[in-house]
């Protein structure tokens, strides 16, 4: 399944829609090259859960993890770009939080293999053939093993 977003506002709207269906225990794996829109998606997702479109949502590139307490549960936004070995992720304490929190993981190729089992994977990139100068268009491709994801995505987000 995939969704083409013509501009940043559409990417943010998609993130907010998916956030509205999120629950504790969900893991969203955000794939994409540098500048693909992972952080834009994550910021919009978190702001939607906070019900605050102006909330400060800094990148976790240097801190590795940013924690947000939203009405639903805690949200851990993590950027694993600087992680070299998946075993290092356990040192962040995220494994203990997975069942009771929502995890947004940028650079998920560095997370432990078993974390992929129930993740919704969102791969973001600029669509091929996008007009020059239109750099905010994104193609978001979804994959995941859980039937729940398919029901959510078919429920009006795509």
From TrEMBL:
Superkingdom of origin organism: Bacteria
Cell compartments where the protein resides: Cytoplasm
UniProt key word Membrane: no
Gene3D superfamilies: P-loop containing nucleotide triphosphate hydrolases
Keyword presence, tRNA processing: yes
Keywords, comma-separated and alphabetical: ATP-binding, Cytoplasm, Magnesium, Metal-binding, Nucleotide-binding, tRNA processing
Record family assignment: Belongs to the TsaE family.
PANTHER family given in the database record: TRNA THREONYLCARBAMOYLADENOSINE BIOSYNTHESIS PROTEIN TSAE (PTHR33540:SF2)
Protein name as catalogued: tRNA threonylcarbamoyladenosine biosynthesis protein TsaE
Organism in which the protein naturally occurs: Kordiimonas pumila
Encoding gene, per UniProt annotation: tsaE
């Amino acid at each position: 399944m995939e969704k083409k977003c013509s501009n940043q506002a559409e990417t943010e709207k998609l993130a907010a829609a998916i956030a509205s269906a999120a629950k504790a225990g969900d893991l969203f794996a955000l794939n994409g090259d540098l500048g693909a829109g992972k952080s834009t998606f994550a910021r919009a997702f978190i702001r939607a859960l906070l019900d605050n479109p102006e909330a400060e949502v800094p990148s976790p590139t240097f801190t590795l993890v940013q924690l947000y307490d939203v009405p639903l549960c805690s949200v851990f936004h993590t950027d694993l770009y600087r992680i070299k070995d998946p075993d290092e992720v356990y040192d962040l304490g995220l494994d203990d939080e997975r069942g009771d929190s929502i995890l947004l993981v940028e650079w998920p190729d560095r997370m432990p293999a078993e974390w992929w089992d129930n993740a919704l994977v969102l791969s973001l990139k600029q669509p091929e053939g996008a007009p020059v100068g239109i750099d905010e268009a994104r193609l978001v491709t979804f994959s995941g093993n859980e039937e729940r994801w398919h029901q959510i995505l078919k429920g009006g987000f795509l």
